[in-house]
Amino acid sequence: xxxxxxxxxxxxxxxxxxxxLGLLANGTGTECIILRPTxxxxxxxxxxxxxxxxxxxxxxxxxxxxxxxxxxxHVDNVVEAVHLALMHGRPGQVYWVTDGxxxxxxxxxxxxxxxxxxxxxxxxxxxxxxxxxxxxxxxxWRLLGLKSVPPLSRFQLDFIALSRRYD
Length: 167
Prior knowledge:
two-stranded parallel sheet; 8 strands
């Protein structure tokens, strides 16, 4: 029953919201159960590969010292959640999927970085400064028509700087 955000913070979030609302409103009689896993982690995770690359290239810094709580879910627990949803889920329901052990971003991501042999950086930037910088970088990338991923975007920033807690 937890509502979708009024305005998701990324094109990815907006697309997910449109798809969820469309699926839940479908009149085809098809049963639909929606799972919303938080940050999925496990061996071979591409998202973490991107963080590792940024750290190794000196392009990573914590926002607010990484002292923001985040929820995560191991890939094995996502598999279990899919099984439970298929066996016991109720059509039309939305389920958050999490390990249920929130941690500070620096603690969690730092442990994953160390496990990959990467030294955890100390650099940090205040979120109140990073947000307008990210928005400005996105504008520059859009105006110049650059096809590469910008070095900082609001979506990337929110990944490391927004508290995510689910009950």
